[in-house]
Structures are given as C-alpha cells and as structure tokens.
Design a protein that fits this description.
Order of helices and strands: HEEEHHEHEHHEHEHEHEEHHEEHEEEH
Radius of gyration: 22 Å
Mean pLDDT: 96
Strand order of the largest sheet: 4-10-9-8-7-5-6
CATH class of the largest domain: Alpha Beta
Structural class: alpha/beta
Low-confidence stretches: none
Shape: globular
Helix content: 25-40%
CATH architecture of the largest domain: 3-Layer(aba) Sandwich
Strand content: 5-15%
Largest sheet: 7 strands, mixed
CATH superfamily of the largest domain: Type I PLP-dependent aspartate aminotransferase-like (Major domain)
Number of domains: 2
Length: 429
C-alpha cells in the first residue's frame, strides 16, 4: 500500500480506505481501547510510547496462572503446564526474535532501571585513566540518575565523568557525525557508551550498529536503553555486537504498567565468571541451584544476571502481549505499517497547514531515523493545547518543557486515528 497524494487525501473517507487495505487492521480488535466519557466513542489513543493498551488475551493468561496456583500451591513450580521454576523461559524465544538475539543472550527479569544498574555493575568498570560514561544530553531521568549513582559508586564526580551528547545550537536531534566525533574525542578516557535506542523526547532512532562500532574502536563497552525501541523498531543486537541492553515491556510491548523488563548480554560474555556482578540465587547454575551451597557460579548467558525467581503474573501478561506481536508477523511487518502510519500523520499535519511558527515537528523527517512517534514542539501555551486535545478525546503525552508526543502504534492504531487527531488539532490549535 502506498501513500500517494490525492485530492481527497485529507478526508476521513481516505483514512478509512487506507484502513480497509491494511493487512493488520484486525489486530485493533485484540486490544481494549478506552472510551471518551462525554461521547462513548473510542479515544484517539496515541500514547503507546508511555503505556500500551491491554491485550484482550491478557486476562486469560493471568487467570491460567491463578488457577494453577489455586490447584497446586507451591507444587505449581514443578507441575505442567506452567512449571514456574522455568517460567521465564516461555519468554526467551519471543524476546530473542524481538531484539535480534540468540536465545542464550536474553532473559526477562526485574524492571528496567534495576536491570540497568545490574548491567552497569558489570560493564561500567572505570579505571583512573578510563572512567567516562557517555550519555545523551537530557536522557530520560532513569538513565541520568543511574549513571550519576554508578559514577559516584566508583568514586568519580559526575560533572567530570559523564559526557553528554547535545544537539548543535538551534537543532533538536543529534547528528551521527557528532556522536562519532564525541566518542573519538574522549576515546582514551571513555569506559562506557550508554545511549537510548530511540530518544524518548524527540523520537530519534539512533544507528546502534555504527555507535557500537565506534565505541568498540576506542576500547569502550557499549550498551543501550531500549525502552522506546523494543517493539517499536527492528533490532539486531547480536549482529550489531552491543555488549548489553535492557528494555521495559509496558510501552510498545503492551505488557501492563510496570511490566517485566528484558535484558540482553552478548554471547561473548556468556562464560565470563570474572565479570563483576550482583549475584542472586536464580542467576546461579540451575544444575546445582538447589544444593544451596556457598560460592556463586553464574549460569551461562544472560540468565546468569538473574537475581530472583520469575515474576509469574507480570510474565503471564508479557506472554500474552508477545504472542500478539508474533501473530502479527513480528517486527518486520509491524515496522512496515509503522512507517506508513507515521508518514501519513506527518503528511496530514502538513497538508492541513497545522504546522506554524509556534507548532512544529522536531522528530526526524527521514523514516529510517525515527520510530512510531512525532514530537510536536509547541512555542506558546503548550500545556493549554495539550489539555484542549485531552478534552476532545485525544490521549497523547506531554513532556516538559514544551513537547506533545504523538505515537501511532501499528498494532492497534488506525489511519482513521491519525485523521481524527489531525481533525481535533485543526479545531483547537
């Protein structure tokens, strides 16, 4: 399906025609879409980059585990069909497909910031000469605070040890050449590169393959926070060679508020008991775990970073959500629709002449450099505009100081959703 411009391309009927031709149109019915109380009509839900919608199958998956618990009690850890002792492994293959990894390189566990700390303990190993940590300027606070505390933990001053990547004056996104130049400038003192796969504020999709290569060329470890990338853009973590990555599951992966996180550790670190880590019982070699002996022996691969046994109910939600991704055809198919959907929304904003001196898109125009997001920079009265959109049944996301984030998610958003947003914006702007 192409998005060729026609005389009626800004009409609702045109949007409906695009939906009728969309091979993924039926997947919207597999989610609960909230309604707007004044009208009873489905809201225009465009904030899946903050919290994805609930899959209709989620309740069924959770009920199954509650029934297993009711029937078996503690024996549920060892009885079919769930066998909670290995429950995290139900997620291994889907996660490996999702992020382009080998199954041994991924594990579902904990929450995102917890996992970020666990991975930095292992992969941020500063010395007196090589101690700096590279971040995006204005990175999401979780990353900022984690980096600051890790730097202090090793006795360094964040003001000196943390290097921030900032756009050029008058620009909103980072140029790849500037990222490379900064890595090489600090190369001899750079311990770790830690960037988001997709920037939460601008929606910029970074070239993680190139960033990994540049970081390794100067001797740094390289990792990514994929909170806004997992389930949003295609990932090939094993091929790219990143040392580590972690992500949450409640945004584009629709696995519930505070949902279980995922971890990637490249296979070259699979058998490195020398890597410092914070150890837990569930990260111990499963072959001897129940001997309860002293002396931690890490399980090979990413599972060796586990602390505790599976969070079964959150993982059940995650299973339900990942099953929908697989049923849709995986990230290649979702990405294809995502590119079309975001491009259509962008085109509507231009053709309806909604972009002005006080309202502009700061997300890259090149589809290869963005995910399912357009960030609207509001010059004046941004919060008032956001509140006006909300009052009309648009669920978007406000980010200080002056950005409204719009995320058309391919699994459940439609071309008509994009049209409805543009129509509301036209009326309230």
């Amino acid at each position: 399906m192409t998005l060729t411009s026609t005389a009626d391309s800004t009409t609702r009927n045109h949007a409906r025609a695009l939906d009728a031709a969309d091979p993924l149109r039926g997947f919207r019915e597999r989610f609960h879409v909230p309604t707007h109380p004044p009208t009873g009509e489905a809201v225009v839900y465009l904030t899946g980059n903050s919290l994805g919608l609930q899959p209709r199958a989620a309740a069924e998956y959770v009920r199954a585990e509650l029934a297993h618990w009711a029937e078996h009690g503690v024996e549920g850890h060892f009885r079919e069909p769930s066998q909670w002792v290995d429950y995290h492994r139900f997620l291994t293959e889907p996660l490996a497909r999702l992020v382009g990894a080998k199954p041994s390189e991924v594990v579902a566990m904990n929450t995102l910031t917890v996992n970020l700390h666990l991975l930095l303990i292992s992969f941020y190993r500063p010395t007196r000469q090589r101690y700096k940590l590279l971040l995006e300027g204005g990175a999401f606070p979780s990353d900022q605070y984690a980096a600051e505390s890790q730097v202090r933990l090793h006795g360094f001053d964040p003001a000196d040890a943390i290097v921030e990547l900032l756009p050029r004056p008058g620009e909103h996104t980072l140029r790849p050449d500037d990222i490379e130049a900064t890595i090489r400038e600090h190369g001899g003192t750079l311990a770790t590169v830690l960037l988001g796969g997709v920037n939460y504020y601008t929606g910029q999709f970074f070239d993680m393959a190139a960033i990994t290569r540049w970081g390794h060329e100067v001797g740094a470890t390289v990792g990514f926070d994929l909170a806004h990338a997992a389930g949003n853009v295609p990932l090939r973590l094993h091929e790219w060679g990143a040392d580590f990555a972690c992500w949450c599951s409640y945004k584009y992966l629709n696995s519930g508020p505070g949902g279980v996180s995922g971890v990637f550790v490249h296979e070259r670190h699979a058998h490195r008991p020398d890597l410092p880590r914070l150890a837990g019982w569930w990260g111990h070699d499963p072959a001897v775990r129940f001997r309860m002996e002293a002396g931690f022996r890490p399980a090979p691969g990413a599972e060796g970073w586990q602390l505790s046994n599976a969070q079964v109910l959150p993982m059940a939600l995650h299973r339900a959500a990942l099953a929908v991704v697989d049923d849709a055809g995986g990230m290649t198919v979702l990405r294809e629709k995502s590119v079309r959907l975001t491009a259509y929304l962008e085109r509507l904003l231009h053709e309806l002449q909604l972009l002005t001196d006080t309202l502009d898109i700061i997300t890259p125009t090149d589809p290869a450099q963005r995910g399912a997001q357009l960030s609207l920079l509001v010059g004046t009265d941004g919060r008032a505009l956001f509140d006006a959109l909300t009052a009309e049944g648009v669920v978007a996301d406000w980010r200080e100081p002056n950005v409204i984030r719009i995320a058309p998610v391919p699994l459940y958003n439609s071309f008509e959703d994009c049209w409805r947003f543009a129509d509301v914006l036209r009326r309230v702007v």
